[in-house]
Amino acid sequence: MTNLYLENQLCFSLYSATHALLRSYKPDLDKFNLTYPQYLVLVALWQYKQLSIKQIAEKLMLEPATITPVVKRLEVKKLTKRTRQKDDERVVIVSLTEEGLALRDKLSEVQKRVACDTGLTNTAFDSLNQTLGTLTKNVTAKIPD
Prior knowledge:
It is found in: Cytoplasm. Residues 7-137 form the HTH marR-type domain. The chain has 145 residues and is an alpha+beta fold. It is built from six helices and three strands, in the order ααβααββαα.
């Protein structure tokens, strides 16, 4: 029954690592009055320029109902703007404002600091990131809809 020891639980190791990383981000994100989910939405928009609410949800592996309030708060902060798609007004498109674009360089430095905090080499960091991506894809494929 050693498989039930905490140190043998992959889920606990991932949970602990995630918690540690989020704690590392928090002080810097607080300076920008951002939550981690808001930061992730900004990262997605810096990469893809504009996305629908549904596309953001898919990229972040969340439900659209979870993303909508996050985007609304970013809009109140004047970091994003929402528009309706012309040919289908049910689709809400999110894009960055100038203020949202301007945060990119500053938050890039935060990400670099957190990456350094891991103590991993670039190769180990990239390998772990790839392994976790594979793990996520494999486990997600086994989850019933």
